[in-house]
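Good morning C.,

I know you're traveling, so I'll keep this short. The sequence:
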Amino acid sequence: MKLIAQVKLQTTPEQAASLKCTMEQANRACDYISSIAWAKKTFGQYQLHKLVYQDVRAQFDLSAQVVVRCIAKVADAYKLDKKRKRTFKPLGAITYDDRILSWQMTQSHVSIWTINGRIKIPFVCGERQLELLKTRQGESDLVFFRNQFYLSATCNIEEPTPLEGKGVLGIDLGVVNIAVDSDGHTYSGKAINNVRYRHRRLRTKLQKKGTRSAKRLLKKLSGKEARFARQVNHTISKQVVKLAQGTQRDIAIEDLKGIRKRITARRDQRTTLHSWSFYQLRTFLEYKSQLAGVNLVAVDPRNTSRTCPICGCVDKRNRPSQRIFSCVNCGYSGLADYVAACNIASRAVVNQPHATRVETKAATVSLPVTELRSSAVASHPLLAGGS
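The tokens, ready to paste straight into the viewer:
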């Protein structure tokens, strides 16, 4: 598994100026390479290298390996599509490899190439990043963000052998409750929703005001909400994986890809819906479960909150409100999110994965319906107690 370790460079003003000049020069070279690639309709790295390498070396005062990395950056930019010409920001991130960047872990500094020669810069990071850097492999990106320089290093982490789960922990994702598991644990979204509402209201007021001080405050607030949401998702995913690992169970989640296009929402709900960071939580669950040796499977989310886990009745009337589930057939009632989590777990029970990977399982099963329901009820004591 590949993870990113980010470290902060402790630059002097002179070192910061050298790094800025290097980034600007490299990105000017990228713009030149992109213009040639667009004009010649040549986008492959090998063909592009033969076409522009000598000219870039002669015009931009860059080392051979930096030119190679600039060509690779342009070629990667055109991999998405070739419908428009690519341009690069003056201080956009540039890539270094071991020929132009060396790490001195014992002294906590890096030796990095600039247009003014190699310079040694100390760096700082947390204990987790130091542990990750022991497995550093491949390239590192130099990033300039908010007047600070960072290095993002690719680290190759060895994954443990996934263990065969003795059950499944179902996870229902939502907005009011960020996650609810099939054990009945609720991870509330009240805090993050309050923060989003407060920041949205403050942004609206500052944008209407439009003064210089208001714009300075907007710039200061930029990214604060996203960082808080990321921290919440990290905390929830860590707790879920720890619970599954401790109970030797697999994790089942909903495959919500494309949900924003599939559903309609009232105008006053659209902002809330599009602020919902369910995909980020899913990615955190995926890599944390792989590190813990826990299998994770994604199932079809259709009707998970409308299906009765007791009798299997599927009906819109089973959801009289956002919070409550009440079966119109057998009378079973409970929290809708918890019922959905149990249904997600029961769908994943049908076909267990053989390795740590994400698969989408259809709602259609090969087991008899009565056998599936009885196994789901037996595996969830809260359901076995009836209404």
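Safe travels,
E.
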